[in-house]
């Protein structure tokens, strides 16, 4: 038999059978970090596999062919986990908008601390791998006469060191563009840190707690469930485990149902900042409802969904991303649908996923007050509504 040597034939068979096991991680890496290298390597390998398939058929190597067919079907099933697969439609919400008496002097600001360049295919099922999705990393300052709160902190100064605690493949699929940490933006704007009463976490993942150490002595509010989750050994909470534990402060959901969520916590007793448990992305994830004096309302939903579009279309995260994070799929569905029923009857509530850059942009009020950093650049004002 002419053509390939024994070793060459073995290599062709190996490429057809084992190749999909390499294309799959390349495809996954590309969704997380749309680099030309991952794309070219994936396409090149896929073409090589097809060429090997053709050789197998031409040479009638049926045993190798069956094995190759099996791994290639497994690969297609894996790709299928990125296809659209919406949650069922939720039942309507028979509830009125809860009362709130936000005091004069309240205002909110966004402090952008960086961007993670990914694709929509990474963010939600049905998302395009060819559409770049910029996952923004923000902190939100809520000014309140009883004490300001910072919702999440975004990236801190030591994010480089923190990232080194992450698994190699996670770092490979992460393309961070860091801007100024929230603490530095506030300092540059002359913000009086004595006003800051709490840091309130939507959840304990690295990209939400990275800047916590820049606010020494400020209590960090987390649910007991999230604290237990942080104490577990997951890589996504390694940054949180590096924080001085004495700053963490549990709180209980001692209030009744709120907008379809079972329990709630009214932080200052005036309905202006209400926290509800929304487990799934992490066990202790919360949604934070903020109402401002002029009537504007926001729901900061953390990572329950990564894009508002996901909520509208009820699309879950792709299987791999959800698995990597260690989500509880049933709880995610329940929390997403609870949030989904609010969106239609209460358009006054602006639902803001933590990483949805387009949503943050659409919530901006160009006339807003803003913090100005030492370089004279405006940090992005979120709202001047009071
Ligand atoms: Zn998260
Ligand atoms: Zn996040």
Walk me through what this model shows.
By secondary structure, the chain is α/β, with parallel strands linked by helices. It folds into 2 domains: 6-80, no CATH class; 107-362, 4-Layer Sandwich (Metallo-beta-lactamase, Chain A). Helices cover 37% and strands 17% of the residues. It is built from 14 helices and 12 strands. It has a 7-stranded mixed beta sheet with strand order 4-1-2-3-5-6-7. Strand 10 and strand 11 form a beta hairpin. Helix 1 (6-32) runs antiparallel to helix 2 and helix 1 runs parallel beside helix 3. The protein is elongated. It binds zinc ion (2 copies).
Q: Which structural class is indicated by helix and strand composition?
A: alpha/beta
Text of the CATH class of the largest domain: Alpha Beta
Helical segment tally? 14
Please tell me what the overall shape is: elongated
Query: What integer value in Å does the Rg equal?
Result: 24 Å
| Mean pLDDT rating | 89
Offer a few descriptive terms.
386 residues, alpha/beta, Metallo-beta-lactamase, Chain A, 7-stranded mixed β-sheet, 5-stranded mixed β-sheet, 14 helices, 37% helix, 17% strand, elongated, disordered C terminus, binds zinc ion
Which helices and strands appear, and what pairs or packs with what?
Layout (H helix, E strand, L loop, with lengths): L5 H27 L3 H24 L2 H19 L26 E13 H4 L8 E12 L4 E4 L7 H5 L4 H5 L3 E3 L3 H7 L7 E5 L5 H4 L10 E3 L1 H8 L6 H4 L6 E3 L14 E2 L6 E5 L8 E6 L5 E4 L7 H6 L5 H7 L3 H15 L5 E4 L4 H6 L24
Parallel strand pairs: 3-5, 5-6, 6-7, 11-12
Antiparallel strand pairs: 1-2, 1-4, 2-3, 8-9, 9-10, 10-11
Helix pairs in contact: 1-2, 1-3
Bound molecules: zinc ion (2 copies).
One zinc ion binds next to helix 8.
């Amino acid at each position: 038999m002419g053509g390939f040597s024994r070793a060459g034939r073995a290599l062709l068979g190996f490429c057809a059978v084992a190749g999909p096991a390499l294309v799959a991680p390349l495809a996954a890496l590309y969704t997380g970090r749309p680099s030309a290298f991952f794309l070219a390597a994936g396409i090149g390998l896929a073409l090589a596999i097809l060429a090997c398939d053709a050789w197998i058929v031409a040479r009638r190597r049926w045993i190798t062919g069956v094995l190759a067919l099996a791994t290639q079907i497994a690969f297609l099933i894996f790709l299928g986990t990125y296809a659209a697969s919406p949650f069922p439609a939720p039942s309507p919400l028979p509830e009125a908008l809860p009362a709130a008496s936000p005091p004069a002097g309240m205002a909110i600001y966004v402090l952008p601390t960086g961007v993670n360049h990914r694709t929509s295919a990474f963010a939600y099922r049905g998302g395009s791998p060819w559409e770049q999705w910029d996952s923004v990393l923000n902190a939100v300052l809520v000014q309140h006469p009883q004490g300001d709160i910072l919702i999440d902190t975004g990236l801190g100064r030591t994010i480089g060191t923190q990232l080194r605690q992450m698994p190699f493949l996670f770092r490979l699929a992460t393309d961070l563009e860091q801007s100024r940490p929230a603490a530095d933006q506030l300092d540059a704007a002359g913000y009086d840190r004595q006003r800051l009463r709490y840091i309130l976490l939507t959840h304990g993942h690295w990209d939400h707690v990275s800047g916590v150490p820049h606010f020494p002595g400020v209590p960090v509010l987390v649910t007991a469930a999230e604290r237990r989750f942080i104490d577990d050994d997951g890589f996504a909470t390694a940054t949180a485990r590096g924080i001085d534990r004495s700053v963490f402060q549990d709180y209980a959901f001692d209030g009744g149902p709120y907008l379809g969520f079972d329990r709630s916590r009214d932080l200052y007793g005036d309905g202006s900042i209400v926290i509800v448990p929304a487990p799934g992305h992490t066990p202790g994830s919360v949604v934070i409802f903020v109402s401002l004096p002029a009537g504007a309302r926001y729901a900061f939903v953390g990572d329950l969904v990564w894009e508002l579009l996901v909520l509208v279309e009820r699309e879950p995260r792709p299987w791999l991303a959800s698995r990597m994070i260690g989500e509880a799929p049933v709880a995610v569905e329940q929390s997403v649908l609870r949030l989904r029923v609010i969106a239609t009857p209460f358009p006054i509530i602006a639902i803001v996923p933590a990483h949805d850059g387009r949503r943050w942009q659409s919530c901006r009020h160009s006339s807003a007050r803003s913090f100005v950093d030492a370089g004279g650049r405006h940090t992005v004002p979120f709202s001047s509504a009071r």
